[in-house]
C-alpha cells in the first residue's frame, strides 16, 4: 500500500544519513552495511515484541545522552540475542535468535546526532514495513552511488507477483485443487483418515519445494514467492483443521514453509545480506499474521540459502581476477554450479549484447564467452540466465518444472532468438509463454 511504501522509504532515508556519516569517518562500505543491517533487524525484532517492548528505543535514548556507551551496549545486546542469555544493555534475558546476523557483532561508534537518526528510524512502526520493496530501498540507502535515487527505481510488486504467480503459484494451485477433489471423494466414501493423509502429504510436498532466483538482488522475488506459498499453506492447514480438528494439525508445529526453501545467487555481498534480512523479516511478519504468536526459538537459522557468487562465471582464484602483465585475467573460466530447485524466477540484470564488453570489462566478457561457447556474442546478458535455466529444464531427471524471468523486450529479435532456438527445436522442445 501507499502507507507501507512511505514508511519503508522514510526508514531507508534515515539509514542513508547514518551510512553516509560512517563512510566519511573511513569505515568500509561493506562493514557499514552489515552493521546497519543488524541494527535494523533489532528494531524490527523490538516492534514484533521478540525483544521486550520499547527496550531497544530506551537503549538508544540512553545512548543519545551518553554516546560513549553505544558500542559496548549494542555488542552486549547482540551477544545475548545470539546466545539467548541475559544482557546488561536492557537488563533482561532475551530470546535466542542465532542465525548469521549476530555471529559478527562489532558495533561502529556513532555520535549523538547519528544515534538520534537511528532512534527516529526505530520510532517508525516496523510492522508496516513492506519486505518486497524494503530490500531495494535499503540497498539504495547503503550504496553511495545509488543514494540520490532513493525510492526512485524498484520493480513494482505487481510485476513481481505476476511473474511468480504464473511460474510457481498457478501450477501449485492446480495441483492443490486436484488433491482437494480426491479428498472430497475420500470423505464421501467415509475414509476421513485417508483424506487427512492426502492433505498432509501435499503439505509435506509444499514444505520441500525449492525456489531459486539466480540473480536475486535484495530478494524481492524470493520474498513474494515466500508470501504466496505461505498463503497456499494457510489454505492447506485450514482444510486439515476442517477435516480433523486440532488433532489433524498435531506434529506440524515447526514444519512449515520457511526461508530455507528460497535460494538466491547474488554477486553483490551487500545485496545478498539484505536479501537474507528481507526473507527473515517477511517470514516473521507472516508467522505472526498466520499464528498470532512468536516463532519458536531459535528465531533465525543459518540456512546459507543466499550464496554470494557470480551466477554465470567461475574461474581459478575466484572471486579475485588475476593480474597478468598489468591486465586482468580470468584463468580457466567455466560456468558455476546452480543449486537444484523446483522453480526458477527472477529479474536478471539487463545489459545489451553490444554493451557487455564495455560494461563488464573486456577480460570478463572474453571469459564469459569462453565459458559459454554455444552462446552468440551478441546475445543480451539476460539470455545467459535464460539459456542456463532452459538447459537445466531439458535435463532428464531434474527437479526443475518451470522458470520465469523478466527478460529483454528484444527477445523475439535475431540474436536472442538464436539462444532460444536450440531449446525450442529440441526433440523435447520447451514451451514458451511471453507476457
Q: Care to describe what's here?
A:
It is flat and about 70 Å long. 53% of the residues lie in helices and 7% in strands. It is built from 14 helices and 9 strands. α8 packs antiparallel against α9 (220-249). The relative contact order is 0.10. The chain has a 5-stranded parallel sheet, sandwiched between helices. A two-stranded antiparallel ribbon has the order 1-2. The protein is an alpha/beta fold and 435 residues long. It folds into 3 domains: 2-149; 157-308; 322-424, no CATH class.
List keywords for this structure.
five-stranded parallel beta sheet; alpha/beta
Question: How is the topology of this model organized?
Answer:
Layout: H1 2-24, H2 29-47, H3 55-65, H4 70-83, E1 86-87, E2 92-93, H5 112-122, H6 131-142, H7 157-188, H8 192-206, E3 211-213, H9 220-249, E4 262-266, H10 269-291, E5 306-308, E6 322-324, E7 327-329, E8 343-346, H11 356-360, H12 362-371, H13 382-394, E9 402-405, H14 414-424
Parallel strand pairs: 3-4, 3-8, 4-5, 8-9
Antiparallel strand pairs: 1-2, 6-7
